[in-house]
Amino acid sequence: MEVHITYCNRPQLWGKVAQGLKWNAESISRLVVVQSGPPWNLPEMPSVGTEQIARSLQKEDPKAFEVSSAMNYGMKVCQEAFVLHIDDDIVLPPGIISNSVKMREECDIPLLFGNAWTVPPETPIEALEKRPMKYYKPILEKPYHLARGAFFAVDRSKFLDIGGWNEEMTDYGYQDYEFTARWMTKYGYNSCALVPLVAWHLEAPDAGKPKPPEDSYNVEATTEAEIALLASLR
Questions:
Q1: Are 72 and 164 within 8 A, CB to CB?
Q2: DSSP single-letter state for residue 171
Q3: Nearest Cα to Cα of residue 75 among 128, 38, 127, 111
Q4: CA-CA-CA-CA torsion for 190, 191, 196, 198, nearest 10 degrees?
Q5: 25 or 148: which leads in pLDDT
Q6: Which DSSP state fits 144?
Q7: How confident is residue 153, by pLDDT bands cut at 50, 70 and 90?
Q8: Measured distance CA(200)–CA(180) in Å, rounded
């Protein structure tokens, strides 16, 4: 599977993110990394897949949100029909990409969301080689959910057909909710699923507010009316 990463200039995390890619090297056909903003110091690319592409974002609209612009640009640089995206603070345990491929083939759903457990960035790499033991029910029935996009696999042509992420939204976290709402409105409420695949999310807990393992990457329940309203805001 082709892998796309939006790189937000966090070199202190990249070594562990790259190690997660190496753990899944046999399942990666091509790697695309797009840097979302200055300073323009692209990370060292791990030797996975037949080709590794690293690009610095050149925004067409200077007012556009850089992270969303990098996401959309990267999806255009990708070539395969189905692409796995992760943020640059996500570590993939061994076997998670091959399992993503199997689930894609078995369920034939064009948008699959994984989940992520938050752990401190200083967590030893040996601990991240183990899979988080957490499972989630697929989004196949009411109430519907909007999932955040730190780790997802998507039909690339459908992603681009609806315009990708909204580059006018400037708050982290909300652009993926809005994208999912537009996706459901365009392709149907059963066209995406939260699957039982869990990665690691490297993030320091808020001062005085330690986060539980299942953090804000969990899903939010919503209604068809709320989804339609959110999708209409663009």
A1: yes
A2: S
A3: 111
A4: -140
A5: 25
A6: E
A7: very high
A8: 22
- Does the structure show a pLDDT above 70 at 124? yes
Measured from the Cβ of residue 208, the count of other Cβ atoms closer than 10 Å reads: 5
Q: Is the pLDDT of residue 107 over 50?
A: yes
* Tokens representing residue 115 in the block: 């989940």
Residues for the chain: how many in total? 234
For the chain, domains (ranges, CATH) are 2-231 (3.90.550.10)
The Cα 55–Cα 40 span in angstroms is 10
Mean predicted confidence (pLDDT) in 181-185: 88
Residue 210 reports pLDDT greater than 70:
no
| CA distances for 221 relative to 111, 146, 151, 164, 226, angstroms | 17, 7, 19, 22, 10
User: What would the DSSP string read from start to end of 67-117?
Assistant: HHHHHHHHHHH--SSEEEEEETTEEPPTTHHHHHHHHHHHH--SEEEEEEE
Pairing, β 82-87 against β 52-56: unpaired
CA pair distance 59, 81, nearest whole angstrom = 24
What is the DSSP code (8-state) at residue 206?
B
Cβ atoms 69, 59 nearer than 8 A:
yes
Structure tokens at 80: 């395969």
User: For residue 211, what pLDDT is reported?
Assistant: 45
Predicted model pTM: 0.83
Q: Residue 126 belongs to what H/E stretch?
A: helix 125-128
